[in-house]
Design goal:
seven-stranded parallel sheet; 2 domains; 30% helix; SIR2/SIRT2 'Small Domain'; 280 residues; two-stranded antiparallel sheet; alpha/beta; 9 strands; binds adenosine-5-diphosphoribose; Rossmann fold
Length: 280
């Protein structure tokens, strides 16, 4: 936590999406920061129609707990069930569109003089489809499948047209070793994060002049430790989330608003690009 600021709930009633205007302390930090690190979680994709992990899932999957499906044990016990769930999510993300919040981050990153580094826990590709470069997918990607035996990358399977209704879809064999099956390239509970991704994320947080956390409950480590790491190094931490999270005590400033409203308003309020910032 920055020494000069205790956690300040934004003006107005926290939890009230209320006034879309960026709170002044947050806008001041965003305007002055050249090195900005943005950490996003499932809430960043919520307004694109992609369910978060701790909000109720929809349809067929409403009676499953995602954390029961995202484990190596589940894959070993019932690969058809886990494979069907991930293929449902692949189909869901392919139908989804990035929202204005995704686009705002891409616009901010393109501002002259700004070094914006984007770290996400999300396995979708909505940031990329909005034009962002993602420094680190801490929990892997729905679109980076690999063999569960030889570990070699394989093309993501095409979900069947009825992926949303089928509770089991047998995984397809690996075309390289023939002994393994194609599994989603995501990090399951109990699996290590990609080393490079996490190291890059740590560096991005420590080198930042502002860390902006958007749409994560802050419950799953080690990703959840990144904001505190920044705060303990004196980097201002700002949280954007419509609901209270485990990160509230770490954030210097909190904006209780949805990403799709807050981020466009914040980037809009950064103001016109100064001629001095334009590349010569
Ligand atoms: N804008 C911003 N935040 C939102 C929005 C929104 N429109 N809607 C919901 N949120 C917030 C919720 O209030 C919550 O704090 O997004 C957060 C989602 O929390 P989780 O569902 O726990 O998702 P996340 O924090 O990303 O989960 C971390 O857990 O299950 C594993 O690997 C999975 O990457 C995931 C990790």
């Amino acid at each position: 936590m920055s020494p000069d600021a205790g956690p300040t709930a934004v003006p107005g009633d926290p939890g009230d999406p209320g006034d879309p205007a960026p709170p002044e302390p947050i806008l001041t930090l965003a305007r002055s920061a050249r090195r900005v690190t943005v950490l996003t979680g499932a809430g960043m994709s919520a307004e694109s129609g992609v369910a978060t992990f701790r909000d109720p899932l929809t349809g067929l999957w409403a009676r499953f707990d995602p954390t029961d499906l995202a484990t190596p044990q589940a894959w070993r016990a019932d690969p058809g069930l886990v494979n069907a769930w991930y293929l449902w999510r692949v189909a869901l993300v392919r139908r989804a569109q990035p929202h204005a919040g995704h686009q705002a981050l891409a616009v901010w990153a393109a501002r002259p003089g700004v070094d914006l580094r984007l770290v996400t826990q999300n396995v979708d590709d909505l940031h990329e489809r909005a034009g962002s470069v993602v420094l680190a997918h801490l929990h892997g990607s729905l679109f980076a499948w690999r063999c569960d035996h030889c570990e070699r990358p394989v093309p993501p399977p095409d979900p069947p047209t009825d992926a949303g209704e089928r509770q089991r879809i047998d995984p397809t064999p690996c075309e390289h070793c023939r002994d393994g099956r194609r599994r989603p390239g995501v990090v399951w509970f109990g699996e290590p994060l990609p080393r490079t991704a996490f190291d890059d994320a740590v560096r991005a947080c420590l080198e930042a002049e502002l860390v902006l956390v958007v749409g994560t409950s802050g419950l799953v480590h080690p990703a959840a430790s990144l904001p505190r790491l920044a705060a303990e190094s004196g980097v201002p931490v700002v949280e954007i989330d419509p609901h209270p999270t485990a990160l509230a005590a770490t954030a210097d400033h909190i904006w209780r608003a949805p990403a799709g409203t807050a981020l466009p308003a914040l980037v809009e309020a950064l103001g016109p690009i100064e001629s001095a910032d334009l590349p010569r």
